[in-house]
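Explain my protein.
***
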Amino acid sequence: MTINIPTAKLTTSFQHDDDSIWIGIDFGTTHCSVAVYDATRGGPKWMRLASAIPERRKQGRIVPTQLGVRKNVTKSEDTERFCDDLKEKCIIGYPAWKRLHEAGNNRHDNSSDYCFIPNLKRNFAQDPQGAYSDDYCTLKWIDAVALVLQRLRLEADDYIRLHASKKHLQTPGNGSCRNVVLGVPARYTSLQRHGMMEAAKRAGFTGHVSTVTESTAAAMAYGLFVGKRAVKTQDLAEERGGTRILVFDMGGGTTDITVALLHPPHRRDTRESTYRDDPSSRFQVETTRGDGQLGGDDMDEAILRYLVQRDQTEFTDEDPIQKRPFLRACQQAKEALTGNESTTIQWQGSSMSLTRAELDSCIAPLLHRARSVLDQALSSDAPIHEVVLIGGATRVPALRRMLRDAFPHIDELSTAVHPVSAVAQGCAIQAAWLSRKIPPHALESALMLDTTPYPLGVLQSMNADIVLRGSPQQIIAFDPNQHVFCELIPRDSPLPAMGSMLFDVAKAQQAGVTVLAVEYVPEEELFVVLNEFSFLLRRIKADQTTPVQRQVEVGMKLTEHGEVIVSVFDSNDPDHVRARGFDNAVEESITLEQWLLGMSCVILFVLYVVVKLNFSSGGMDAIAEEL
């Protein structure tokens, strides 16, 4: 098959802003949270923000993911200027949530000056480059996300500025918040992850911007707060080869699972990695799985459909103003049934009862999907020693019962970390590590790297005369009769991940090769184009013996920051051979230098001992003569 390949890389511009503060953000389906690492307290600080739901006359920590845009606003091409005009054009968080529900309670009130963007995170995930449009407003999803992220950034600035001296906060960096780590669902592709990072840049995060899987971030929070307890049970961990932890995160709209292994000190992974090079790194992420359309909101929808069908209630999904308060009442009933056997729903003057058994029945299909995701994460036979619950939906008794049935050998499901703040706090821990402003030993029990959510490789055509081409973030539907996917980096590979493969070149004398680097999403049978890379090949001289079949080696690397690097090695190119030989020589010279340094230290130590013994012997002889 014909391929064409140059050394190139696909990356978002990652700047390292040394003077700005690093924070972590959990951009959830229903709520958002922001945290920053506080070196004074040795852990992440969950921040109180002005847009959060108030808590007993104080600012809250949970910000509803709700955006209202003033009607008839024309979106300018200058996104940054548009975002800077928040007070006049947008309401975000609790103010938007409150006005939205007030409008829902009075279904005849159409006097609101704002149009409210529905299901922001889910709609963005379905089409990051798409837009919301109605009779009053047109706004790109990525800009809508940017508006919410900018409000979170500005309010985080205000919180840190107000409490830096009052609460003695010692944050990674100074000034304003310009660096961020965002939590994203496990099912997010590179297209969706880069969309979130682009939204963050439009929101004013001009420094480092990266993402981490939400359940992996929660595992980091668990590792920091509970990791020291694992040290006390070190003997037990050594007997079973480490403690394997499963983090089950079900929020409002997504379900994510991370399986991580806590190594005993003498069994830590020493493979090449930013974290694993540090002797305190003890966690290794083994797998991540998720469902991007499964969460607490889906349970509310299931309850609503059940009640409408049971009581023959006059209701239509086409009326969002009517549906909104009904869904809210279903959510309150779900929350009430976590501690009661029955509850009553008041809606439009009528009273409807709902029991826990009925709740279990109507959400049973959702629990079956959750069990399917769990089984995918447990594809190996490795035992699970602890299950950590994250997310508000994990409070549902039926869900916990399903997890207990899946792990009968575990006495109790762990709720050691806060189910709502864990993701934001884990993102803050990741940000603190990336900032290099916090001593590594302070994060020793939480250091871990994410894994690749999907396999990466090269997409080729079945027809050798056709060279596949594509643009970054393009979606290609898989056709087994036309496409051949060559996997270079398997799924769940620890970051940074590398892989390579030999490819036959169609013609020995061809001028170059083109590689279409893709990410394969097997659940949806589609490819996300990372980029198209073209490389020149060295022409073989006429007097040179032409090989029967010319081959090139294509290499691919995915860094911990999401940077994709593609390279090619041609054994017929002296420059390639020389470069590879130089790299090997450098590695060998480093090994030789280390050996010489070690021998020098041994010689110096021997000389020191000899001199000291001679000096001690001479001193004893002098004392003997005086006596």
Remarks:
- The chain has a mean pLDDT of 79.
- The domain at 296-364 is CATH 3.90.640.10 (Actin; Chain A, domain 4).
- The radius of gyration is 29 Å.
